[in-house]
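Quick one, T. Sequence first:
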Amino acid sequence: MSSHTPPSDETQASVHDTAKIKILKFIVIALGVLMVVAFLTVVGTIAYRIMTKGETPDQKIAPVPAATISKADIDVVRPIGGRLMSMEVEGQMVYLLFSHEAGGDTILVLDEGSGQVVRRITVK
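C-alpha coordinates:
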Protein backbone atom coordinates (compact mmCIF):
# COMPACT_ATOMS: atom_id res chain seq x y z
CA MET A 1 0.00 0.00 0.00
CA SER A 2 1.17 3.36 -0.86
CA SER A 3 1.04 5.95 1.72
CA HIS A 4 -0.46 8.84 -0.16
CA THR A 5 -1.46 11.63 2.13
CA PRO A 6 -4.04 14.13 0.99
CA PRO A 7 -2.79 17.70 0.67
CA SER A 8 -3.35 19.72 3.74
CA ASP A 9 -5.63 22.73 3.81
CA GLU A 10 -2.60 24.94 4.19
CA THR A 11 -1.07 23.62 0.94
CA GLN A 12 -4.31 24.10 -0.97
CA ALA A 13 -4.62 27.63 0.37
CA SER A 14 -1.08 28.53 -0.71
CA VAL A 15 -1.72 27.20 -4.25
CA HIS A 16 -4.94 29.22 -4.40
CA ASP A 17 -3.13 32.33 -3.12
CA THR A 18 -0.39 31.89 -5.72
CA ALA A 19 -3.00 31.90 -8.51
CA LYS A 20 -4.58 35.05 -7.08
CA ILE A 21 -1.17 36.74 -6.90
CA LYS A 22 -0.47 35.91 -10.55
CA ILE A 23 -3.84 37.37 -11.59
CA LEU A 24 -3.20 40.52 -9.53
CA LYS A 25 0.28 40.93 -11.03
CA PHE A 26 -1.20 40.69 -14.53
CA ILE A 27 -3.87 43.28 -13.69
CA VAL A 28 -1.29 45.67 -12.19
CA ILE A 29 1.00 45.37 -15.20
CA ALA A 30 -1.89 45.84 -17.66
CA LEU A 31 -3.13 48.93 -15.82
CA GLY A 32 0.40 50.33 -15.72
CA VAL A 33 0.76 49.91 -19.48
CA LEU A 34 -2.67 51.50 -19.98
CA MET A 35 -1.68 54.49 -17.83
CA VAL A 36 1.54 54.99 -19.83
CA VAL A 37 -0.38 54.86 -23.15
CA ALA A 38 -2.98 57.34 -21.83
CA PHE A 39 -0.24 59.69 -20.60
CA LEU A 40 1.55 59.57 -23.95
CA THR A 41 -1.74 60.27 -25.73
CA VAL A 42 -2.33 63.37 -23.61
CA VAL A 43 1.25 64.62 -24.13
CA GLY A 44 0.97 63.99 -27.88
CA THR A 45 -2.33 65.87 -28.09
CA ILE A 46 -0.91 68.84 -26.20
CA ALA A 47 2.18 68.91 -28.43
CA TYR A 48 0.03 68.72 -31.58
CA ARG A 49 -2.20 71.58 -30.42
CA ILE A 50 0.81 73.73 -29.55
CA MET A 51 2.36 73.11 -32.98
CA THR A 52 -0.91 73.95 -34.80
CA LYS A 53 -1.86 76.83 -32.49
CA GLY A 54 -3.74 79.59 -34.29
CA GLU A 55 -4.65 77.50 -37.30
CA THR A 56 -8.30 77.06 -38.03
CA PRO A 57 -9.83 74.77 -40.62
CA ASP A 58 -10.67 77.85 -42.73
CA GLN A 59 -7.00 78.80 -42.96
CA LYS A 60 -6.16 75.45 -44.53
CA ILE A 61 -8.49 76.16 -47.49
CA ALA A 62 -6.77 77.75 -50.47
CA PRO A 63 -7.69 81.43 -50.89
CA VAL A 64 -9.91 82.45 -53.79
CA PRO A 65 -7.91 84.06 -56.60
CA ALA A 66 -8.49 87.81 -56.80
CA ALA A 67 -9.57 87.53 -60.45
CA THR A 68 -12.73 85.61 -59.47
CA ILE A 69 -13.89 88.12 -56.85
CA SER A 70 -16.48 90.57 -58.12
CA LYS A 71 -15.67 94.24 -57.58
CA ALA A 72 -19.28 95.40 -57.97
CA ASP A 73 -21.04 96.78 -54.90
CA ILE A 74 -24.47 95.51 -54.01
CA ASP A 75 -26.75 97.83 -52.04
CA VAL A 76 -29.29 96.02 -49.90
CA VAL A 77 -32.18 97.81 -48.23
CA ARG A 78 -32.43 96.39 -44.73
CA PRO A 79 -35.96 95.59 -43.58
CA ILE A 80 -37.26 98.17 -41.07
CA GLY A 81 -36.30 97.08 -37.56
CA GLY A 82 -34.28 94.19 -38.96
CA ARG A 83 -30.84 93.16 -37.76
CA LEU A 84 -28.55 91.13 -40.01
CA MET A 85 -27.97 87.78 -38.26
CA SER A 86 -26.19 85.75 -40.93
CA MET A 87 -25.13 85.65 -44.57
CA GLU A 88 -24.57 82.59 -46.76
CA VAL A 89 -23.30 82.39 -50.33
CA GLU A 90 -24.24 79.37 -52.40
CA GLY A 91 -23.36 79.45 -56.07
CA GLN A 92 -24.67 82.74 -57.49
CA MET A 93 -27.16 83.28 -54.64
CA VAL A 94 -26.58 85.29 -51.47
CA TYR A 95 -28.88 84.57 -48.52
CA LEU A 96 -29.29 87.26 -45.86
CA LEU A 97 -31.13 86.49 -42.62
CA PHE A 98 -32.60 89.47 -40.77
CA SER A 99 -34.14 89.18 -37.31
CA HIS A 100 -36.76 91.72 -36.20
CA GLU A 101 -37.06 93.19 -32.71
CA ALA A 102 -40.82 92.76 -32.83
CA GLY A 103 -40.40 89.08 -33.66
CA GLY A 104 -40.12 87.12 -36.87
CA ASP A 105 -37.38 86.88 -39.45
CA THR A 106 -36.85 87.89 -43.05
CA ILE A 107 -34.65 86.05 -45.53
CA LEU A 108 -33.54 87.98 -48.61
CA VAL A 109 -32.24 85.95 -51.55
CA LEU A 110 -30.02 88.01 -53.86
CA ASP A 111 -28.55 87.21 -57.25
CA GLU A 112 -24.84 87.87 -56.80
CA GLY A 113 -24.33 88.83 -60.43
CA SER A 114 -27.08 91.45 -60.71
CA GLY A 115 -27.49 92.38 -57.04
CA GLN A 116 -31.26 92.10 -57.39
CA VAL A 117 -33.50 90.62 -54.69
CA VAL A 118 -34.75 87.35 -56.20
CA ARG A 119 -36.96 86.36 -53.31
CA ARG A 120 -38.07 87.74 -49.94
CA ILE A 121 -39.17 85.18 -47.33
CA THR A 122 -40.90 86.39 -44.18
CA VAL A 123 -41.16 84.11 -41.15
CA LYS A 124 -43.67 85.30 -38.54
